[in-house]
Design goal:
GO molecular function: 4 iron, 4 sulfur cluster binding; metal ion binding; rRNA (adenine(2503)-C2-)-methyltransferase activity; rRNA binding; tRNA (adenine(37)-C2)-methyltransferase activity; tRNA binding
InterPro entries: Aldolase_TIM, Elp3/MiaA/NifB-like_rSAM, Methyltransferase_A, RlmN_N, RNA_MTrfase_RlmN, rRNA_lsu_MTrfase_RlmN/Cfr, rSAM, rSAM_sf
Bound molecules: iron/sulfur cluster
Structural class: alpha/beta
CATH class of the largest domain: Alpha Beta
Oligomer: single chain
Organism: Paenibacillus chitinolyticus
Distance between the termini: 27 Å
Protein name: Probable dual-specificity RNA methyltransferase RlmN
Shape: globular
Enzyme class: transferase
CATH architecture of the largest domain: Alpha-Beta Barrel
Order of helices and strands: HHHEEEEEEHEHEHEHHHEHEHEH
CATH topology of the largest domain: TIM Barrel
CATH superfamily of the largest domain: Aldolase class I
Helix content: 25-40%
Number of strands: 12
Number of domains: 2
Number of helices: 12
Strand content: 15-25%
Radius of gyration: 21 Å
């Protein structure tokens, strides 16, 4: 069996793991300093860590479980990475540059079972969950890339919006979040981290009850069940009423703002009446809800969907604003590379058979 990645251990898990071998908490602090502050690429580089301890780490863990397979750099600074995992599977990770900092979009599963009808990733069924370590390593790989450029740039924001349904891999997602938030390590602020779900109601409740305290985004994409089921088949099992119940629980429990993602598909869900219906659905949740409108990135696999006209996006936005719904339009990143989620991966898989 392959050895697990050391990045998968939270600080407390590493401390507990070292204890039976007679190593104190101080040793875990030393190791974390090498992992996340000095960012070494091998255990041997941890020069002040006791030799016995290094031997143990080498025997039980690995530092690198994936390698860069393809990298696409856009003229706007977006970088798309395709990583090859130790079992040969390919996953996508994206670095995006914003005015407010550098964000990384991570993948949580190999493939996805949710089957959203517009998504290039959803065509490839889930073959497995990523481990917590594999999710952390995506951030580390991007940080190594930035370190190499020596511009003192740091990953400041994380969005869990890549391939996969993060709440379908809840335990590993939780470990990942604990590792990247920890002030002893990467210290990415909870307010700078957003997890996006297709709407697994039970998990939204579990997330609200957890101590994770990061931002939540829910993919809505339609204001009524008939249309949402057409776009996202998960809506059959978890209709809008059930989703809204979970959202209300989340808002009541956390009092944190929540984002509703709404992908605009030309002639499907981008009409004025859809905007009106959406405002009505949001109702008195307005103070805690922001709608993120996402102009669709067309992919060959789903030729039935096109990007909404600029005027439709504007009109949709204006109606929501007029109805006092907080709303934004997502800027496109990496338009000159394979911009849509999963596009690079599915192209590579097709090319290599
Ligand atoms: S949009 Fe996300 S949840 Fe839906 S199929 Fe694609 S990867 Fe899965």
């Amino acid at each position: 069996m392959n050895k697990p990645s050391i990045y998968g251990l939270t600080f407390d898990q590493l401390t507990a793991w070292l204890q039976p071998y007679g190593h104190k908490k101080f040793r875990a602090s030393q190791i974390w300093d090498w992992l996340y502050r000095k960012r070494v690429a091998s255990f041997a580089d941890m020069t002040d860590v006791n030799k016995d301890c290094l031997g143990l780490l080498e025997e039980h863990f690995v530092l690198q479980t994936m390698e860069e397979h393809v990298k696409q750099e856009s003229s706007d600074g977006t970088v798309k990475f395709l990583f090859r995992l130790s079992d040969g599977n390919l996953i996508e990770t994206v670095l995006m540059r914003h005015k407010f900092g550098l964000s990384v979009c991570v993948t949580t599963q190999v493939g996805c079972n949710i089957g959203c009808s517009f998504c290039a990733s959803g065509l490839l069924k889930k073959s497995r969950d990523l481990s917590g370590g594999e999710i952390v390593e995506q951030i580390m790989k991007v940080q190594f890339y930035l370190d190499k450029a020596a511009k003192e740039e740091r990953v400041s924001h994380v969005v869990v919006m890549g391939i996969g349904e993060p709440f379908d891999n809840f335990e590993n997602l939780s470990d990942f979040l604990r590792v990247i938030k920890d002030h002893k390590g990467l210290a990415i602020g909870a307010r700078h981290i957003t997890v996006s779900t297709s709407g697994l109601a039970d998990k939204i409740v579990e997330f609200a009850d957890s101590d994770l305290h990061v931002n939540l985004a829910v993919s809505l994409h339609a204001p009524n069940n008939e249309l949402r089921t057409r776009i996202m088949k998960i809506n059959k099992a978890i209709p809008i009423e059930k989703l809204m119940e979970a959202i209300d629980y989340y808002l009541g429990k956390t009092n944190r703002r929540l984002t509703l993602e709404y992908i605009l598909l030309k002639g499907v869900n981008d009409a004025r009446e859809h905007a009106e219906e959406l405002a009505e659905l949001i109702g008195d949740r307005r103070p805690l809800v922001n709608v993120n409108l996402i102009p669709y990135n067309p992919v060959d696999e789903h030729s039935q969907y096109q990007r909404s006209e600029k005027e439709s996006v504007r009109a949709f936005y204006d109606i929501l604003k007029k109805q006092n719904v907080s709303c934004s339009v997502r800027l496109e990143h990496g338009a000159d590379i394979d911009a849509a989620c999963g596009q690079l991966r599915s192209k590579q898989i097709k090319a290599t058979g």
